[in-house]
Amino acid sequence: GDSVTQMEGPVTLSEEAFLTINCTYTATGYPSLFWYVQYPGEGLQLLLKATKADDKGSNKGFEATYRKETTSFHLEKGSVQVSDSAVYFCALSGQGAQKLVFGQGTRLTINP
Amino acid sequence: GAVVSQHPSWVICKSGTSVKIECRSLDFQATTMFWYRQFPKQSLMLMATSNEGSKATYEQGVEKDKFLINHASLTLSTLTVTSAHPEDSSFYICSAHQRTGGGYEQYFGPGTRLTVT
């Protein structure tokens, strides 16, 4: 079945550092890919998404590119802030499906 | 933006009792809602898909008689954990599905932490 594997955390960086959180997936066909963020005490929020190969999703300085050849959707940000501290989830929904399959989540802590 | 609430945010109950968790879409109607379970330091596991006016669709391995789901209106779905046991202690998260310009999007509630003693 479909699955998502993402970089294990926790990840700790200093403010203004470059961030990469790796995400790879296994799915048949052409899934849609998502990154969700969960801030402390809050529900998951959609951060960005891409629905077809080579699409780049971007939001709040974060970017991820749908790479079908490597089945990856790595999350990047050029300069992180303390306010980016949260848990990040990579997810996919299969072609034509509504259900989401999540990776295990990566806890990110940014120190001032 | 679309807001989904859950109630209660946390609950402690005794083994053998039942607990009901509510999931509400506050500013939109949702024909489909999803219930997830999240274990510490693990991912969200889909338990079931809740459809307004019809029976829920459960994922493989999820006991439908233990986790009762009711989606009686377009803004409310409930999950009842029946005869709860300590192994049911977990973080339960719901989401509501809404059609957007680019397709569908899921909006998540803040979660309910259940502790069974």
Order of helices and strands of chain A: EEEEEEEEEEEE
Strand content of chain A: over 45%
Low-confidence stretches of chain A: none
* Secondary structure: helix percent of chain A: under 10%
Number of helices of chain B: 0
Overall structural class of chain A, as computed from helix and strand content, comes to: mainly beta
Shape of chain B: globular
Work out the strand percent of chain B: over 45%
Which chains have the largest interface? A-B, 18 and 22 residues
User: What is the mean pLDDT of chain A?
Assistant: 93
Distance between the termini of chain A: 41 Å
Q: Over the alpha carbons, how many angstroms does the gyration radius of chain A reach? A: 13 Å
- Percentage of helical residues of chain B? under 10%
Number of E-type strands of chain A: 12
Q: Which of globular, elongated, flat, extended, rod-shaped describes the shape of chain A?
A: globular
Order of helices and strands of chain B: EEEEEEEEEEE
Structural class of chain B: mainly beta
Report on the biggest sheet of chain B: 7 strands, mixed
Flag low-confidence runs of chain B: none
Q: How confident overall, as mean pLDDT of chain B?
A: 91
Defining traits:
heterodimer; A: 112 residues; mainly beta; 6-stranded mixed sheet; 4-stranded antiparallel sheet; 12 strands; globular; B: 117 residues; 7-stranded mixed sheet; 11 strands; 0% helix
Describe the structure.
The complex is a heterodimer of chains A (112) and B (117). Chain A is mostly beta strands and 112 residues long. Chain A contains no helices and twelve strands. Chain A has strands spanning 3-6, 11-14, 19-21, 23-26, 32-38, 44-50, 56-59, 62-65, 75-77, 86-93, 101-102, 106-111. In chain A, strands 2, 5, 6, 10, 11 and 12 form a six-stranded mixed beta sheet that branches. In chain A, strand 10 (86-93) and strand 11 (101-102) form a beta hairpin. Chain A is globular, with a radius of gyration of 13 Å. The N and C termini of chain A lie far apart (41 Å). Chain B contains no helices and eleven strands. In chain B, the strands form two sheets. In chain B, strands 2, 4, 5, 6, 9, 10 and 11 form a seven-stranded mixed beta sheet that branches. In chain B, strands 1-3-8-7 form a four-stranded antiparallel beta sheet, with no helix packed on it. The model of chain B has no long low-confidence stretch (mean pLDDT 91). In chain B, a hairpin with a 5-residue loop joins strand 4 (32-38) and strand 5. Chain B is globular and about 45 Å long. Chain B has 117 residues and is mostly beta strands. Classes of the chains: A mainly beta (112), B mainly beta (117). At the A-B interface, strand 6 and strand 11 of A face strand 5, strand 9 and strand 10 of B.
